## 1
Amino acid sequence: MTVDTFELRVESRDGSLGMLEVAGYINNEAGEAIAREARRLIEGGHHTLLLDLAATRIINSIGISLLLEVLEQILEIKGTLAFCSLSASITKTFQIMGLSQYTRIFPDRATALTALSGPA
Amino acid sequence: MLEPQLVRLVLPRRPHVELEAGQAVETLGLKAGFSRDTLAEVRLAVVEACLNALEYGGGEIEVELAAHTDGSPWLEVRVVDHGPGFDPDSVPRPQLRSKLRAERKRGWGLELMRRLMDEVEINSRPGRTQVRMIRRQRGG
């Protein structure tokens, strides 16, 4: 396995929070897998999704466009899409796209879970 | 005057080949003394150039990397394909607000390349498209 091998772990946490822990290169295939699991979580009543990208070093533009599909679905239900543990280059990529206007970004998972699990 | 360190790759059209170009950026750049953060940005720009060549271009993809370490270090990248060519000025700049409402959410590659690199120059004609990009090391 290389550092770019894609892995996805999905966790349904208490309340309406769902978490996707992503490792490896997010391209079209990985983006589709994330979008599919995110849709499943949303349909299961999760209005807040946290994507932990601690083990992701690169997202290409096709992967990004698939994350935008997830964001669109979340915005439709007035939910929250959050990211944590972004690398410097992914932070810059999101900044270029203007994603921080529509999502919440946290430095690490513990901070994210504290903020997102609290009372609305 | 120091000669630049050069790497030349000829990549076949197969899935994930863009990562090989990205890996070459990292290997060459680290050897030449670039920071990992700078290289991560160059790596993504090169991945995007290769993806465009894979999707819209034709033939093998030629990637040339040059690390110039004489004075303030800078990386020069050339990605060449042999497809039908395109007019880079006709590619609209993506806006997140409109992309969120749009059926097609793609179209970020060129914008990312332009924003991650210091210079991006595209010369395209039928049979040959060359993307030349430059990124300087910033800070100490």
## 2
Amino acid sequence: MYAFKYHRPTTVRQAANLLAKFPEAKVLAGGHSLIPVMKLRLASPSDIVDINGVEGLSSIEVKGRSVVIGAMARHAEVANAQVLQDVLPALAGVPGSIGDPHVRHRGTIGGSVANNDPNADYPAACLGLGATIITNKRRIAADDFFTGMFSTALEPDEIITRISFPLAKKAAYQKFKHPASGFALVGVFVSKRGADIRVAVTGAGSNGVFRVKSFEEALKKRFSPKSIEGLTVPADGMNSDIHASAEYRAHLIGVLARRALAAA
Amino acid sequence: MPTVSMTVNGKAVSVDVDVRTLLVQYLRESLRLTGTHVGCDTSQCGACVIHLDGKAVKSCTTLAVQCQGANVLTIEGLAAPDGPLHPMQEAFRENHGLQCGFCTPGMVMAAVDMVNRKGNELDEHTIRQELDGNLCRCTGYHNIVKSIAAGAKAMKGKAA
């Protein structure tokens, strides 16, 4: 890994000031995406702003009709949070499927969402539930937050502090795991909250997480696997690599969406 | 170079290191605690698993400087140097839970963490699921799973 300067701020404001001061700085949360790419020298930040010393970013609490999760909540904490099991178990299942137990002790929800890896699970949950990403500056709707592979609406000195998920009446996540990495080859999150119906897909799109409007439209009549039977997603714009072709990924979207709807 | 201080196996340690130093390098190269292994160096294999503030983590994917003030437990700290083996280590010995032994320190640390989280009665399915982050290139999983089930039972009433 290339040399960098290390900073350990104790407040979000201090962290944001460091990011503003050093344009090539990176935020270090759980470090399970950032440290590996630094080791491979694919990333060479001038400064590391470690926010593990900032207090108060790990809470998980129900506020009105939403559950609000602190950006530094580890995957294991979210997966095991009783409050989440009670009000939105579909969301608890998402971090429970990431990596392995050791990775889940370190990785954070904020880090996963800010990184927007095209195969990550949390972006599908955010888009699939219509979450609001809360930063030190503003609130951003998930629909506006994910702007393409590894890119988001975050400004250089903007830090995610919390993510607010509305409590959906029905929701489920189904993922086709890559057997070695555990990443989603394809993952589909579905939810229904009043008239708001969402089908969000990770892993498949060559431009990151996206919604399947044709499925959502068909589900308006009835939120059931039957409603999307026979519907397909075109292979155009899907990822194609040694793990799966674009056609196979497109096919999996339909399969996983139906499984998720059956589970919701 | 910053001075990084932490508690390792109950002992306060303090070393001047480059901020790029990974926790596994800090343990192996600065402290000469070579029981923690580097297998894949890409967070896959689990040979480097240690306990950081009571939780199993991959020390190849953690910077030493992040662990300032932390409490670290490695395989060397599991049992007293002159005392009997830790029940989980004893169970691995008893059940032939190792072949070449390279993955063993990580397996044992992951197994103790598994017991801390899931209790003393672990069925085979749970053990295999929870071993997701540890690879054995000898493919000796059968006896590893047996060892962990036995070690978990033997740990009952004893501190990890």
## 3
Amino acid sequence: MIKKRSTLSFFIPRRWSPRQEMKSYFTFRNYRRVWLILIVSLALTCLVPLSIITVTHQRIVDRAMNVERILRAERVTSNARRSVGNFLAERMDALRFIVNEVDYEKLSRNDQLENLLKNLTVGFGGISDLGVIKEDGTQVAYVGQFNLKGKNYHNEPWFKQCMASGQYISDVFKGFRGVPHIILSVKAKSPSGDFFILRATLDTAKLIQTVRSYQISDYADLFLINHDGIIQTPSTTYGDGQQKILFNVPAYSARTHAFEIRDLKGRPFVLGYAYILAGETKTPFILIDLKQNAPMGTIWDQSKIKAMRIFYVSVFVILLIVFLSSTYMINRLYMSDSIKAHTLKAAEHKSQLASIGQLAAGVAHEINNPLAVINEEAGYMMDLISMGDSPPDNAELTEHMQSILDSVERCGTITRQLLFFARQFDVKIMSFHPADIISDVLKFFKKEAEYRNITLTVDVSPRTPVIVSDKGKFQQVFVNLINNAFQAMEDSGKLDIEMSPMDPDFVCVTVRDTGCGIPDENLSKIFDPFFTTKGEHEGTGLGLSITYGLMQKLKGKIDVKSKVGTGTTFKLIFPLNIEGESKS
Amino acid sequence: MKVLLVDDQTQFVSVLTRRLNMRGIDSVCAFSPDEALKIVETTRFDIAILDMKMPGLSGIELRRLLHQKDQNMKFIFLTGHGSEVDFKVGSAEASFFLPKPLNIDKLIEAINETASEKP
């Protein structure tokens, strides 16, 4: 019958573990474990190197990507810095040009100043008013949207700074106008020897435009901050103005720098920055180029995605093959183990029958002798009746009948022994004294020993305790071993059996014969099934392998020492209680 | 005609000897090979009936020893243990090979036939 196999059966073995009674014949007890170990070890040997290669590759790509992003940020920042610097420097230079070229007299007149403002607006744009302030802080002339003529700036910080350093560029601030602007101012000397200041207000719109013109990608954010980290031109990341940035203000450097940072919210960026100089003049501005990690799309990302795709496909294929091959292997292993197990079990059964047969032959001989006696006695009595001269004497008849009864009794004893012995082959855990079993077994060998002049000695230590074990198996172990010893020995050999307790939980029995011995090269093979040195028809090669199997079932151990020509010693160790947890 | 019976089963061999004597066959029994070897020192036997298996010495070995002492002696083997090897050797080295328990008439037949054999 062909069973239809589901796809799953290619991935998961059909049988996990043999039936309880078959377990001891299988190589493994739990095939699920073997299967798992096979899968895990195969998968690991394939996946670990693959993962290492993939991760290393990704790292290299990431590093290259970062280096490129940093370099690009540096380039953009550097360009933008130059532009913003130039933007401010141009306007400062214009103011310087005015104070050097135009007389103070003209400058302090509103109509002249208005002309200048017009020309400046045409030439540069972004300048919304102009003012001239005397040394004492009074604005002597002003053109623009507001009427600020006469206002005194004496106490303003920018005024003080400009007086001190000769020029001044302010932060972006709203002031009382409510519109973000920058104050540019330069100090000059009037013909009368007094100092005065030309001050211009710069709209930020054009500055913002200049900065923005370098913002080429959606993920870049170019803006200015002052030295305190307050945003000066709109930032798409942190807001339009006057907020503080969420990372530390980078330290002063004359050069442009770029590196990776995380802001206070933990967002990763590539940060490019540069302190802006307007020509030689220091400005309060720092150009910031924040670049978010752009989501997928770059050539690097594509290569990363491709590598990952290859990785996932490889993992899938490897796992598929590992599962298929492991399952196939386990199925085959299970099948061949199963065949082996059934062969062994059948052979074991056959050999058990054979050893019973051997015993039966011995017993038949045992029974035959009393039968022969009965035969002769009965025949003799018949002879007395039919051939005797006189009717037989009662006393004589009684004597011979008694002899018949004695012989029948002997037969009865032997059959009882055999029945008792045969019954032991059922699995039965019970308590018994090992010496009793050995003496039972030896009864069947006594006659042969007598004929072959083999000396049997049994030395039982009086401390040997009663054990709890499978009596039938225990018995069969000794039938097998003594049988082997008898076959190995020439006539007039010696078979010694010694028994003593060992440790608190074990009994040790040694069976020593003076047989032919086992050569060293065979010693390791004698417990293998079908190993035999006897001829083809003499031995099955199973005796000792079955004994070994029996010892395992009895949770015992068997050990062999042998010397060719001297004899062989089997050392057997039995647990006191087969059902107890043995402390090994 | 004189017959020697050798078997370690004393009961069996002594009753059998008595029965042979009752049938007019002059028989003597020995309970061990040693005893048999001693008896043949003093008495001459035509036929020896030997058990195949005896402690110490097997029937076949005893036959050889007896044959050395008396080339004319003829042999019948008895066995309680029908092994194939024993049967082959026994048939080759003796005139008859009879299983136990014995039928007395068959034994007598065998004795007569053996006695009439040429040495």
